[in-house]
Write a structure and sequence with these properties.
Blueprint (H helix, E strand, L loop, with lengths): L2 H9 L15 E4 L11 H5 L2 H11 L5 H6 L4 H11 L16 H15 L3 E5 L7 H13 L3 E5 L3 H4 L4 E6 L2 E6 L6
Parallel strand pairs: 1-2, 2-3
Antiparallel strand pairs: 4-5
């Protein structure tokens, strides 16, 4: 009924046939599928590989002035905290993303969103292929998110934690205040 198209319109990946879509702030997306590139590491999936390389150059005594200005000395700790929040504590940043299960990759990408801290996150079926414990972790992360969240899901347990349901159908969009049970 157009849920994926709606997300693409919000991100700017697609243009509307009529009207305009206005965005302010930053938007992060957790797509339903992600095929890691060959050799892609956990650090790359998290989006911390380049900032971590800056710190590594400084520690190796090979830093430029720019490196010294750009260094984020809290990044490794924050990455560990984000991984812990999604149930991936202790995952080495240099391990290959492709070696993780599909559910672990989803949680890894969610940790990447936590690190990026966009103003709005778009989650396309974030609990697909996850066991009950991982689904609960994802729901807890969403519940603690202090920005805006748009969730496309058929997971009734997750939808019971939402404060508004938008039903997208061939008839249009209808808004319902409250969680899935009120919908």
């Amino acid at each position: 009924a157009g849920k994926s198209t709606l997300l693409r319109l919000i991100t700017g990946e697609a243009a509307p046939v009529e009207g305009i879509v206005s965005r302010c702030g930053t938007v992060g997306v957790l797509h339903q599928r992600h095929d890691p590139a060959p050799g892609e590491t956990v650090a790359e999936t998290l989006g911390v590989d380049q900032p971590m390389a800056v710190v590594a150059r400084i520690l190796a005594g090979e830093a430029s002035e720019r490196d010294l200005a750009d260094a984020d000395w809290t990044l490794e700790t924050r990455a560990g905290e984000a991984l812990d929040a999604v149930g991936l504590a202790g995952l080495p940043l240099d391990s290959l993303t492709a070696n993780l299960s599909g559910g672990e990759q989803t949680r890894l990408r969610l940790a990447g969103l936590m690190l990026a801290r966009p103003d709005l996150i778009l989650l396309d079926e974030p609990t697909n292929h996850l066991d009950a414990e991982a689904r609960a972790l994802v729901a807890d992360v969403i519940g603690r998110w202090d920005g805006g969240v748009v969730v496309v899901s058929h997971d009734r347990d997750l939808l019971r934690r939402m404060d508004r349901i938008l039903e997208v159908s061939s008839l249009g969009v209808a808004s319902y205040g409250g969680d899935y049970d009120l919908y």
